[in-house]
Amino acid sequence: MTKYEKYKISLLGLFVIGSLLCLYEYSKNGRYISNETEFTRNVIDTRTGTVYRVINETKIEIKNFELGKSNK
Fold this sequence. Notes:
Radius of gyration: 21 Å
Strand content: 15-25%
Order of helices and strands: HEEEE
Structural class: alpha+beta
Low-confidence stretches: none
Number of strands: 4
Distance between the termini: 54 Å
Mean pLDDT: 80
Helix content: 25-40%
């Protein structure tokens, strides 16, 4: 294997790893939804159904959580 082929394979490998990392981080976008009212502030994890209450520093686990379809 020549030096050129080694460089080509390593650059291709770095490009693939970088692309996969970018896609993984992009898939997390929209996972957490913030909900603020006058008295409370909640953050909802849409993948697990966990509701985090920021003021009380507690979390509420929702059993059998299913993501519904959007009307958008």
